[in-house]
Amino acid sequence: VTIVPLSQIRGSKLDKAASARAAEVAKGAGGTAVPALSLVGFDAEISAAMEYVFGRTLVCSDSKSAQAVAFAKDVRARAVTLEGDLFEPSGTLTGGARRGAPLLARLHALAEARRAASDAEERASEAEKRVAEAADV
């Protein structure tokens, strides 16, 4: 095990243009691609370590999209599918585990559910305000 102080870690992440291009490439392949860093929650104090681990990785909805993204000349980033298949721009492919529901798929579903719940709470709060305003009239 190697321990590196957080102050010594130099992470990097995809720029916005590469992320946008990855989304376009994935859409053209019939899927989606999202920067992994945007799907992971963490404290700001460990951002360099998280960028080092996840900064140049995209999470894609399927193998076809992941392959297209990983090998696109203007993207060339690591791409992982919701099933756990990993496509490296160098040409290597690592298969994911197939036991039970894939972890990334479950995390994606959880993030979507949280986003939907937050939106519903916001709409409910706005409706409560309108009802209170109407009651005051």
What features would you highlight for this structure?
137 residues, alpha+beta, five-stranded mixed β-sheet, 47% helix, 11% strand
**Which structural category fits the helices and strands?**
alpha+beta
Strands, count: 5
Count of separate DSSP helical elements: 4
Largest β sheet strand count, sense and barrel closure: 5 strands, mixed
Low-confidence stretches: none
Mean pLDDT: 87
Radius of gyration: 19 Å
Topology order in helix (H) and strand (E) letters: HEHEHEEEH
N→C terminal distance: 68 Å
List the helices and strands and how they pair.
Elements: H1 16-28, E1 33-35, H2 47-54, E2 57-60, H3 63-71, E3 78-81, E4 86-87, E5 93-94, H4 103-136
Parallel strand pairs: 2-3
Antiparallel strand pairs: 1-2, 3-4, 4-5
Helix pairs in contact: 1-3
Written account of the structure:
The protein is an alpha+beta fold and 137 residues long. It has helices at residues 16-28, 47-54, 63-71, 103-136; strands at residues 33-35, 57-60, 78-81, 86-87, 93-94. The protein has a 5-stranded mixed beta sheet with strand order 1-2-3-4-5. It starts with 15 loop residues before the first helix and ends with a helix. The relative contact order is 0.12. The model has no long low-confidence stretch (mean pLDDT 87).
